[in-house]
Amino acid sequence: SVMALPLQVCAQLCRRPCYCPWVPPHCPRGSPLVLDGCGCCKICARRLGEPCDFLHVCDQSQGLVCDYSTAPMGTGATCNFEEAEEGCELNGRVYRDGEVFQPSCKLQCRCLDGGFSCIPLCQEDVRLPTPDCPFPRRVEVPGKCCPEWICEARDWHLLRDARTVSLPLPYPCQEWGTEWSACSVTCGVGFSTRVSNQNHYCRLETQRRLCMARPCPALPAAS
């Protein structure tokens, strides 16, 4: 009886010859012109979640079918993904489950179980202040998608005065620092590094110091 229902509807609604309006309808964005269920006239394809029936078909290019599973007595159906496939909709575009796309040049997303899982395409590195670049700043560069770090030249007079005079800070500085790293060489004089804010400006910076794990063995004398 379920299979006989579309045949009965087809016999009642589909008449030959076809009588269609001269001017095709103007469809909203994302809804293409398709043939109706009788294959006669061009209509606007129904989108995800919109009501549908035998005549008003869903947009098959998006993988949509007319879902009667929640419709009583075959009425009140809506467009849904085929085989209960979940999708994602963003800015009027529907992405299938598992599809990878880029909503912008900075993000790459994946449609998964009706939601989004995105990863950044720009590096999220952090540049710490150094003596040659005490004020690093991240800025947007025209023509490039990802921001870049620049060294902002400001307060150089404070740096010059700090060599001889220790200027008081307007706030208390809570000292913080990592442990010194291992020596860069296994023997002889090398250097170790750490990140600390123990300086005149209480700013995080990379600090270095000389170190020597052990003396290097003497080379054999040339014969």
From TrEMBL:
GO CC entries: extracellular matrix; extracellular space; nucleus
Domain IGFBP N-terminal: 6-82
Subcellular location, principal: secreted
Location of the VWFC domain: 86-152
Keyword Lipid biosynthesis: no
InterPro entries named in the record: CCN (IPR050941), Growth_fac_rcpt_cys_sf (IPR009030), IGFBP-like (IPR000867), Insulin_GF-bd_Cys-rich_CS (IPR017891), TSP1_CCN (IPR043973), TSP1_rpt (IPR000884), TSP1_rpt_sf (IPR036383), VWF_dom (IPR001007)
GO BP terms: cell adhesion; positive regulation of cell differentiation; signal transduction
Transmembrane segments: none
Pfam families: IGFBP, TSP1_CCN, VWC
Keywords of the record: Cell adhesion, Disulfide bond, Secreted, Signal
GO molecular function: heparin binding; integrin binding
Key word Metal-binding present: no
Compartments in which it is found: Secreted
Family in the record: Belongs to the CCN family.
PANTHER family for the chain: CCN FAMILY MEMBER 5 (PTHR11348:SF22), CONNECTIVE TISSUE GROWTH FACTOR-RELATED (PTHR11348)
Protein purpose: May play an important role in modulating bone turnover. Promotes the adhesion of osteoblast cells and inhibits the binding of fibrinogen to integrin receptors. In addition, inhibits osteocalcin production.
Record's protein name: CCN family member 5
Organism ancestry: Eukaryota, Metazoa, Chordata, Craniata, Vertebrata
Name of the gene this protein is made from: Wisp2
